[in-house]
């Protein structure tokens, strides 16, 4: 809760941070040249150009294939996984929960790199497989491989939403069906599945939407055979015409937003209708888990295979690649072991700076971002008025803008606004972009913490004479400090993982590991990329270890 | 067991891990009878109901319904919940939010492969019976709490189960509606000649609704009987204290004469009361006095004591007087407001139970 004036100031600043960069993208898309050129005029020629480019249509087609394909793979797998974890007596369920969520926190660009060094033509696993069986049946650079990998790595998203829907489903409605005479199978068919179907529909739209956003995987896996998706097409446009083709990039960005923004609004509507189903909840009786019997071995084998493919293979590939000098058929692992790559990283100022910057942006930047999200959260906390509804929509908007384009838009803001220009090559510009891109995620963390505070505790504060601001400071914030700590750790991990947002902001002084990997990958410096990737995973891993140590829930 | 018995529970025991919840409970429900399971929270009353329904897993004993054994630990019989043919009204109502009122009530019939036409007929009849005829096409979230409860009852009754189980049926209603619903529910059960087992933690609800009360305490039945018996002939201190509105005085027995004992409270009050335990002279005891049994008297006399009236409170239909009795307070009811000061209070020995 905030007083009226600071509340309006917070919302105004928030609106400016979100809509100004976005507006700049839309404005740029209808200009004939970069907006800072005096010759730029209002025109639709950028749209004409990309609509006439066959690559654009190929990228659109591929994006649709990836989005549909990964939904088809991730949704059934994630839903089945959630059912097994929540409703059955699978042994070791408690231990599996954390590994299942890990792919969410590994940078996709690191994952993509991991698949290349593990399953690529001369990858570790490919070479071993070839030595054993004489051939390699897969091609990691095909569009099908991108779809499968994108699908498998998005299983945790589906798992998160369907498992929480299954947990929220009071067992009383199922028991009522049992007593009415329904067998366990009919209970699942007539009650459980229809009741979680809104959550499944929601997550279906979410995964489809994420298909439009993915950048790291197609950048690394799609490049060798030239499979472009819309985000990588946008990225490659930079060099297409030789001159900065900002208007073309803005046009592509506008096309992507035209698809993603309605999807975000659709998600919001679906979430609302899903909540209707959990409106009534009885006292949650102990659920008797379904006995799997001999099926548990099959279930365990499926989960183990999935974990092997999505975590063990890429992560072990990155780790191994970072300590060998070269790799290929007939090479003895022990002879090529080396620490040279790490030495190379720590000898270069740029690399050291990117590591330090990454740590800074995760720790201090993360704390600062959580502070900002908290202010926005307090501005709308328990004040269901027009301003709060407006904030709801503002918060959702950056969700529709992929990180790559958000980074570009922020870059333009710092280029365009005179008094901000000196900040362009400081870490502030990167932090600002990160904070805006992850606004919706952070706000969800903050809001779920705020909702835990009983309204009567705050009302009691008001009644004994504290102002709104006082109540926030003395009652609300102290009560949610554990939630804030958790939010900080999660935002730390997300900021370490982030890579695409920093790509266009990369300049001396603003290097972060993720963007550095993207830029080094283009130059083919595989050794350094491997070392940096491992360091990146270690940073995320230490955040994860701390979060687990403090008992932070990895989901809400 | 007589042939009038419709539900019979024999020595049922149930534990959560090493924590015993039911320690051998036996009870019977006769056809057309309403029995309440009453007890404080944690006494096992809801667990007993859920075990009868097949939603909890006992480890010993047996349950028989209408002559059919549905659970018998020794014989290894455990009929799943859906085959027990019981009706259960959940405390939360547990209506399926994705089905309309009509579909909620029709579902048990659909599972029993009843024809479409007959389903429509029986559901409409059930809804009409409960005053819900006009709400058939609504969804549960569009109904008030009282309406949801009626739908939940209709769903449990539509397939004519031999026994209907009700888990705290009135606890989700607000206080004023609860009294109306209580009368409505009792009337419905009597009119439809249902055999019902009701869980409740509210003693007045239990007394008003049932023919017999089972008072549970710590997983065993403390006492069972008609509401009148439970109220006026409690066998243990727990029952005396749980039922009714009481004054509890702690003291020491100073004299025993036939079935009566004299209790000295806080060194000053001396009361004669009925002996309800075998406590001897000199032992610490508790005297239970029903609030409505104490009367103001106009002067000294047998079983009358002078007491210090602190205040009187207006309760609408009566006044409640608050007396100082040593270091505790004593409550009594009367018709007139009384000013504070010295008063005579009568303690009829048959209304003082010494445990």
UniProtKB/TrEMBL annotation, chain A:
PROSITE patterns: ABC_TM1 (PS50928). It is found in: Cell inner membrane; Cell membrane. The keyword Transferase does not apply. Keywords: Cell inner membrane, Cell membrane, Membrane, Transmembrane, Transmembrane helix, Transport. It comes from the Bacteria. It is a multi-pass membrane protein. One of its GO terms (biological process) is transmembrane transport. Residues 60-267, 355-547 form the ABC transmembrane type-1 domain. GO terms for cellular component: plasma membrane. PANTHER family: INNER MEMBRANE ABC TRANSPORTER PERMEASE PROTEIN YDCV (PTHR43357). Belongs to the binding-protein-dependent transport system permease family. This is Iron ABC transporter permease. It comes from Zoogloea dura.
TrEMBL record, chain B:
Coiled coil: none annotated. GO terms for biological process: quaternary ammonium group transport. It comes from the Bacteria. Residues 7-243 form the ABC transporter domain. Keywords: ATP-binding, Cell membrane, Membrane, Nucleotide-binding, Transport. Transmembrane segments: none annotated. GO terms for molecular function: ATP binding; ATP hydrolysis activity. The keyword Transport applies. Pfam families: ABC_tran (PF00005). This is ABC transporter ATP-binding protein.
């Amino acid at each position: 809760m905030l007083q009226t004036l600071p509340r309006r100031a917070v919302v105004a600043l928030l609106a400016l941070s979100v809509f100004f960069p976005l507006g700049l993208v839309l404005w740029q898309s209808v200009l004939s040249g970069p907006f800072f050129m005096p010759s730029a005029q209002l025109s639709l020629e950028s749209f004409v150009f990309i609509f006439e480019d066959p690559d654009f249509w190929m990228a659109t087609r591929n994006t649709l294939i990836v989005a549909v394909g990964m939904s088809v793979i991730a949704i059934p797998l994630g839903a089945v996984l959630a059912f097994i974890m929540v409703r059955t007596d699978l042994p070791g369920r408690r231990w599996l929960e954390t590994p299942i969520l890990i792919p969410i926190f590994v940078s996709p660009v690191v994952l993509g790199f991991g698949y290349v060094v593990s399953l690529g033509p001369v990858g570790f696993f490919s070479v071993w497989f070839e030595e054993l069986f004489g051939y390699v049946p897969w091609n990691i650079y095909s569009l099908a491989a991108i779809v499968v990998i994108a699908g498998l790595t998005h299983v945790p998203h589906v798992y998160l939403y369907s498992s929480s829907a299954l947990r929220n489903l009071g067992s009383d409605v199922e028991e009522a069906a049992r007593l009415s005479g329904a067998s366990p199978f009919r209970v699942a068919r007539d009650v459980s599945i229809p009741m979680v179907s809104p959550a499944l529909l929601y997550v279906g739209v979410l995964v489809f939407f994420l298909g439009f956003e993915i950048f790291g995987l197609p950048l690394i896996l799609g490049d060798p055979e030239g499979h472009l998706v819309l985000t990588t097409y946008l990225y490659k446009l930079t060099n297409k015409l030789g001159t900065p083709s900002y208007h073309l990039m803005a046009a592509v960005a506008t096309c992507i937003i035209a698809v993603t923004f309605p999807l975000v609004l659709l998600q919001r509507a679906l979430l609302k209708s899903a909540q209707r189903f959990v409106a009534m909840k009885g006292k949650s009786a102990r659920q008797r888990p379904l006995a799997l019997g001999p099926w548990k071995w099959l279930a365990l084998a499926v989960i183990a295979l999935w974990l092997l493919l999505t975590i063990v293979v890429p992560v072990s590939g990155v780790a191994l690649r970072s300590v060998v000098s070269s790799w290929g058929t007939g090479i003895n692992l022990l002879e090529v072991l080396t620490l040279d790559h790490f030495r190379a990283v720590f000898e270069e100022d740029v690399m050291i700076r990117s590591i330090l910057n990454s740590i800074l942006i995760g720790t201090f930047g993360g704390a600062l971002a959580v502070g900002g999200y908290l202010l926005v959260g307090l501005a709308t906390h328990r004040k269901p008025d027009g301003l709060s509804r407006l904030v709801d929509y503002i918060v959702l908007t950056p969700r529709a803008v992929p990180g790559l384009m958000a980074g570009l838009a922020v870059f333009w803001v710092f280029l365009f606004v005179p008094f901000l220009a000196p900040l362009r090559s400081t870490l502030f510009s990167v932090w600002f972009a990160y904070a805006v891109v992850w606004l919706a995620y952070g706000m969800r963390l903050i809001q779920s913490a705020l909702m835990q505070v009983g309204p009567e505790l705050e009302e009691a504060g008001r009644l004994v004479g504290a102002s709104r601001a006082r109540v926030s400071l003395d009652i609300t914030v102290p009560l949610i400090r554990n939630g804030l700590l958790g939010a900080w750790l999660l935002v730390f991990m997300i900021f370490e993982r982030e890579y695409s947002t920093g790509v266009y902001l990369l300049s001396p002084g603003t290097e972060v590991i993720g963007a550095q990997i993207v830029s080094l990958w283009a130059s083919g410096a595989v050794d350094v990329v491997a070392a940096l990737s491992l360091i990146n995973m270690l940073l995320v891993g230490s955040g994860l270890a701390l979060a687990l140590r403090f008992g932070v829930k990895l989901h809400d | 067991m007589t042939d009038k018995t419709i539900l019979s529970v024999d020595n049922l025991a149930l534990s959560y891990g090493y924590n015993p919840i039911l320690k051998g409970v036996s009870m019977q429900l006769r056809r057309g009878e309403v029995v309440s399971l009453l007890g404080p929270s944690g006494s096992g009353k809801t667990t007993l109901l859920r075990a009868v329904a097949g939603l909890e897993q006992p480890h010993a004993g047996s349950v028989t319904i209408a002559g059919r054994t549905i659970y018998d630990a020794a014989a290894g019989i455990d009929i799943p919940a859906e085959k027990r043919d019981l009706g259960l009204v959940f405390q939360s109502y547990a209506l399926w939010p994705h089905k309309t009122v009509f579909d909620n009530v029709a579902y048990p019939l659909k599972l029993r492969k009843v024809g479409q036409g007959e389903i429509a007929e029986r559901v409409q009849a059930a809804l009409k019976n409960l005053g819900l005829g006009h709400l058939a096409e609504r969804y549960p979230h569009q109904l008030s709490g009282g309406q949801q409860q009626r739908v939940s009852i209709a769903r449990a009754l539509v397939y004519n189960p031999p026994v209907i189980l009700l888990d705290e049926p009135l606890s989700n209603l607000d206080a004023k509606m609860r009294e109306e619903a209580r009368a409505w529910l009792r009337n419905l059960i009597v009119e439809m000649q249902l055999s019902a087992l009701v869980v409740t933690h509210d003693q007045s609800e239990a007394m008003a609704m049932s023919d017999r009360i089972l008072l549970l305490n710590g997983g065993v039945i403390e006492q069972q009987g008609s509401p009148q018996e439970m109220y006026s002939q409690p066998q243990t201190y727990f029952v005396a204290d749980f039922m009714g509105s009481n004054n509890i005085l702690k003291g020491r027995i100073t004299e025993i004469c036939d079935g009566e004992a004299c209790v000295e409270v806080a060194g000053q009050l001396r009361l004669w009361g009925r002996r309800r335990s075998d406590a001897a002279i000199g032992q610490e005891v508790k005297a239970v006095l029903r609030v409505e049994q104490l009367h103001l008297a106009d002067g000294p006399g047998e079983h009358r004591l002078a007491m210090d009236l602190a205040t009187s409170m207006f309760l609408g239909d009566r006044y409640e007087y608050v007396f100082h009795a040593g270091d505790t307070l004593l409550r009594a009811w009367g018709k007139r407001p009384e000013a504070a000061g010295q008063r005579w209070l009568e303690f009829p020995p048959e209304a003082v139970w010494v445990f």
